Each structure stands twice: as structure tokens, then as C-alpha cells.
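FAQ: What does a ligand-bound record look like?

Like this one, built around flavin-adenine dinucleotide:
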Amino acid sequence: MTMTTSRPEAAGLDGFQPDIIAVGAGTAGLILAYSAAEAGARVLLLEKTDRIGGTLYISSGMFSAGGTKRQRERGIEDSPDEHFADIIRISRDTVNRELVRRYVDIAPALVDWLQDNGFEFEESCPVIIYGHEPYSKPRTYWGAENGRSLLKLFKRLLEPYFASGQVRVVLNAPAEQLVMEDDRVVGVVAGGREYRAPAVVLTTGGYANSPELFARFTGGRRLVSIGNLASTGDGIVLGEQVGAQIVGSQYFLPTFGGIEDPDQPGRVYASGPDEWDINARLVPQTRLPWEIWVNQHGERFIREDEESVDNRERVLLQQPDMRFWVVFDDRILDESPPLILRWPAEELRAKAKEGRFVLAAETLADLAAKMDVPAAALERTVNAYNAALERGAPDPLGRAHRPLPIVQPPFYAIKQQGIVLRTWTGLRADRELRIVRPDGTPIAGLYGAGEVLGAATFSGDSFCGGMSIGPALAFGRELGKRLAQQLVGVG
Ligand SMILES: Cc1cc2nc3c(=O)[nH]c(=O)nc-3n(C[C@H](O)[C@H](O)[C@H](O)COP(=O)(O)OP(=O)(O)OC[C@H]3O[C@@H](n4cnc5c(N)ncnc54)[C@H](O)[C@@H]3O)c2cc1C
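The answer part, i.e. the structure of the complex:
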């Protein structure tokens, strides 16, 4: 199926000969197609699903840049140098310095361009976000409708090119193989059909929905994912088949806390397929903890008001199955601000009656049995927490915020899992975003942008806020323009 407007409709390619094929019509692929088309190139987007947009449907869509017009309008002084220094600090200098340096330099122009094109920024941004290790300056931006605001803009910008046929999309066309001639990539086989172009760009995203690749790149860990369903790492496999180097598999951090869906093991529970909306609030800068967290041994493993999300995620990595339980009692349920915004106290009690997402029991021993943790250990842990609080003694793990002991039945427990929304490993690219072999030589005709390059390239051994969406956009935009200039010589 091909499409010549943003509405999918059947049509032939009618001898269309693209200058560029982008494999994957998501975050990087769409902006790449637009900037290449604007610079005069004909672009073919091959998309494996029945819609364009990729992870933009579900992504929070946050990106970071230092030195933007929007910051200046709000009196925030910032610069690419400061952004770069923060990324080096947060990642402990484990990123690909060359590509991160390039990113911070081109990111402000990306954000200004979004603004000039009527992007609907969420009103408050830029701000400092605490869901990841915070930057030192407010430099994180996102759309009023999160990732969908970006998709809305790209659809609007691309519409004239879809209408004129300069950019074409083939839906339901999963790329299965790269076509090689004389050591050069000259095309793609997708949906059983061969497509050719002088430049092929892999914009297929990560592997957040591939349990197999995730296990392969994390030493056998089990995946619990909120990633886009189509993120199965296809581009990484395609690149590997033609000799590309794989990078980043030494790094992985889970995102701190999500509820696994009992009906879909391995997937995070949400109200719908493109949603990520049912979360326990575990960031102390947003909501101070009233509960305790215990692992599968029935033991606390970190002070729950630990401010560093990096510390929290690193400690979670060490817990059995990357799992923990949020444990509290009936009085905490009544008196604390909602733990899960979508499940205020009465809703949470109803869930406890169902016994699928929320466990409840009249005694800690019965609760422990439902959680499958040793009862004696859970009792010891709760008693130690309560005893220190009642004596006015320091918390055993140094926690400062202890509003109430856990004494009033029923007792509750909600299982939390270290979850995955983006993935670390990917194809190595050089400064020009050419995909390279282990010896550093580029594979002619093959390029990459977005998460296919591995989140570790831009975040190293950490989560740097906005450093997946941002590089996907900025490098998609830069690469589209550069390839167009090289291939058609205008723009
Ligand atoms: C819940 C959630 C929240 C997130 N929040 C943020 C955030 O706030 N900030 C941030 O920086 N990052 C965030 N991320 C990560 C970020 O959204 C992604 O890294 C980014 O959108 C990936 O862009 P991409 O272009 O590489 O891939 P995608 O946008 O996933 O696009 C890839 C496209 O390729 C298609 N495709 C895949 N395989 C094939 C194939 N074989 N043939 C043809 N097409 C194929 C897919 O269908 C898809 O359309 C979040 C991710 C999730 C899941």
C-alpha cells in the first residue's frame, strides 16, 4: 500500500525513483523526509506498520537544547557548551562525544525551527525535569500533546510533498533485507518487493519491544516494555547483516517503576495501546514518598526519598528481576497525595478487591504470602521502619520524609518493575551519520538516524533527558538536508 497524501491509500509507485529511502516513518524518518524534500530530493518512506508516526504516538516527546530563542524569551541564559558539560557530567563521560557535541550545537536551531513553524510547545517549557538526572538549567521542551504534537507538525509540513508525490510512503512494508552491489547498499527489500535509491537511511527505531534482542544485549534480562510495538530492532539486524558495528551493549538502565500487565506479560499496563498513563509517582521531587519499597527478599534497598534518579535506577538494576513492591497501609492511603493519579483512594481500594494490580491483606504475613516474599523478612523490614520512626531515631536507610508508620490494616502492596522505553545498543555511525564497520570504514550508501544508533550513543551509561527524541529530530533534519544537497545539489 502506498500513500500520496497523509491519508493511506492504495496507489502504485508509477516509476517513482527516490533519491533517498528512509526505512521507518517515525520520529527521525518523518523529519528527514521533510528536510530532504524541502531541499529538493525525492523521498520514499518504507513503513512496516499501517500508519506513520512510530514512537511519537506514545513518547513523552521531550527534547533538550541549550541556547534557544525560547530560553532567551524567558530570560534563561544557556549555551551548547553548558548543555554538553551537563551531558558529560550526567553520563560520567560515557557518550559518543563527537555526535553529542554535534547534537548540542545543532539542537538550538532545531528548537527555533519548531517554534518558527508553529509547534505547540507545552506552555511551561523549558523546565528542569526530574524524571531523569536533572540538567543544571531549564532546557527540556515538549509539545502540548507530547510526541503527538511533533507528529501533527510533521504531517502538516509533509502534506504538500505527499500531495505532489515528491515524498511517498509505502505502508505495511517491513524492510527485510538491504540490497548490496559492489560493497554498496543500493536498496531495500520490503514486503517482498525491491526498492532502490542512492542513499538508504535506517530510521527503524530501537528494540524496546523485542524480548530476544533485549536479552541478547543485556546479558539475558527479561524485558518489561512500554516501547512502541513496532520497535523490534529490525534496522540493527539489517545493519549487522551487512557488517555494521554494534555499539552500546555494555550499558543499560531500567526506567524506575511500571506496572506489568498480567494479561500481557512483558508489557507495561496502560489504559490503551498508545498510552503510558498508569504510573506510581516515585519521583520525590514530584511527590515525597509515604510508602516503603521492598524487593523480592522482603527488604528495603534504598531510601525512598533518594533524589538521584540515577542512583534509584542503578540500585533497581541489582534487585532480583528488577522488581520491587510499594508497601503501605490504610491510613497512608487516606492521608497521602494519590500514589497513582488515575487511581485515587477509592479506586485503589476497588483494585485491591480485584487483587490483580493491588494486593491487600489484614496482616503483613498474609500480604507477604500474596507477594511471594518471606513473611518474616517483610515483618522485620516494616517493624524496623516503624520502630525508628516511633523512637525518633534515624531511618535505617537514612530516609528523611517519614510522615506515618505502616501499622493500620489493611496493608497494601503494588508490584513495580524496572521497565524499558528506549534501548541502549545500536549501529555505530560516524559524524556524517554513515553506518560504519568495526574498522571504522563507512558502508557506502547506508546511513542511520534515531534510536537505531543506540541510546548509549547520546546518553552513555545514563539517562540524559530528551537525548533520544532530540538527536532523532536534529540528526534526521540535518541528514535529510545534507543528503539532498549531495544527491540533487540544491537547497
Ligand atoms: C513511553 C515513551 C516515552 C518516551 N519519552 C521520551 C522523551 O520524553 N524524550 C526522549 O528523548 N525520548 C523518549 N522516548 C524515546 C523516544 O521516543 C524514541 O527514542 C524515539 O521516538 C525513536 O525515534 P526513531 O525515529 O528512532 O524511531 P520510531 O519513532 O520508533 O520510528 C521507527 C519507525 O520505523 C518503523 N519500522 C521498524 N522496523 C521497520 C522495518 N523493518 N521496515 C520498515 N519500517 C520499520 C516503525 O514502525 C516506526 O514507524 C520515549 C519512548 C517511549 C516508548
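Follow-up question: can I read anything off the structure? Yes, for example: The chain has two domains: 2-58+147-252+422-488, 256-419.
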